Amino acid sequence: MEHIIETNNLSIAFGGHVAVDSLSVKIPKNKFTSVIGPNGAGKTTFFNLLSGQLRPTNGEIFYKGENITKKSSTERTRMGIGRSFQITNVFPNLTVLENVRLAVQSNEKIRYQMMFHFKKYKKFEEKAMELLELVLLETKADSVAINLAHGEKRKLEIAMLLALETDLLLLDEPTAGMSLEEVPAILEVIKKIKEKGDRTIVLIEHKMDMILDLSDQVMVLFNGQLLAQDSPSEIMENKTVQSAYLGGLHDENSA
Ligand SMILES: Nc1ncnc2c1ncn2[C@@H]1O[C@H](COP(=O)(O)OP(=O)(O)OP(=O)(O)O)[C@@H](O)[C@H]1O
């Protein structure tokens, strides 16, 4: 199996606290991997290390076989590592369509002035509309971003992330703060991206039951370490994982 990310003994400490501890993992290409673990397990810190927001205290990160440990987050985005919060600078007073069109334009490295070139402008807008359809937000294309419901804003963020056309999508709790009614729509969006099969999705989620069906693989973090990485069914059966979630795991051998 081809892997898009490989980490080698990746660690980071904040003061004396080791948040990610000697993590050596491989993330399969064009698959859906979910990252789960109790509060404080190091999930978001792991993402921050992958996207370049944080520098490791030790260890290395390889992306498509290249050592990216010393690369900036901007360089990593250019190389194809996309993270949802990097584009949360949604312009609140622009419409949904305008926001996505600007993200499409920025990906094409076109200067703002080029907007006046009608043909290009049309092309960007069509691409933006396609993305809005993919995230089930096309009916809101003309709504001003500030007026969107929380779940719709998260969908807009995903559309803008997709506009960057990165091969790897790091989604940190895309359903956080959503109402129960909003959750199925965002899962549908993620499912559609997955079904296209040309991207690697890594997703942190607290609501484990929701994403197990979608996942090709589940990675469980606990105290900054890799507790297990397996298929969803194997993870569900894993006694050590069950113990971690029940708050135990003091004596792994008895689990
Ligand atoms: N910038 C920081 N400075 C100091 N400590 C930090 C920093 N970032 C994270 N930590 C600590 O590292 C540990 C891991 O945090 P992290 O946010 O990665 O966990 P998490 O698994 O994402 O948790 P949650 O599910 O609650 O979001 C926690 O103990 C947290 O307090």
Features:
single chain, 255 residues, alpha/beta, Rossmann fold, six-stranded mixed β-sheet, five-stranded antiparallel β-sheet, 9 helices, 11 strands, 35% helix, disordered C terminus, binds adenosine-5'-triphosphate
Protein described:
Keywords: ATP-binding, Nucleotide-binding, Transport. One of its GO terms (cellular component) is plasma membrane. With about 260 residues, this protein is an alpha/beta fold. The protein has helices at about 45-50, 75-80, 95-105, 120-135, 150-165, 185-195, 210, 230-235, 240-245; strands at about 5-15, 15-25, 25-30, 30-35, 60-65, 65, 80-85, 170, 200-205, 215-220, 225-230. The protein has a single domain, classed as P-loop containing nucleotide triphosphate hydrolases (Rossmann fold), CATH 3.40.50.300. The chain has 9 helices and 11 strands. A 6-stranded mixed beta sheet has the order 7-8-9-4-10-11, sandwiched between helices. Strands 1, 2, 3, 5 and 6 form a 5-stranded antiparallel beta sheet that branches. The two termini are about 30 Å apart. About 40% of the residues are buried. It binds adenosine-5'-triphosphate (ATP).
Could you write a compact summary of the structure shown?
The protein has 255 residues and is of the alpha/beta class. The chain has nine helices and eleven strands.
Q: What share of the residues does DSSP label as strand, in percent?
A: 15-25%
Q: What do we call the CATH homologous superfamily?
A: P-loop containing nucleotide triphosphate hydrolases
Q: Name the overall outline.
A: globular
> Mean of the pLDDT scores?
88
Strand arrangement, major sheet: 7-8-9-4-10-11
| Separation, N- and C-terminal Cα atoms | 31 Å
Ions, cofactors, ligands: which are bound? Answer: adenosine-5'-triphosphate
The tally of domains stands at 1
Largest β sheet strand count, sense and barrel closure: 6 strands, mixed
Give start-end ranges of low-pLDDT stretches: 250-255
Structural class: alpha/beta
GO molecular function, one term: ATP binding
Protein name: Branched-chain amino acid transport system ATP-binding protein
Keywords: ATP-binding, Nucleotide-binding, Transport
Domain ABC transporter: 5-248
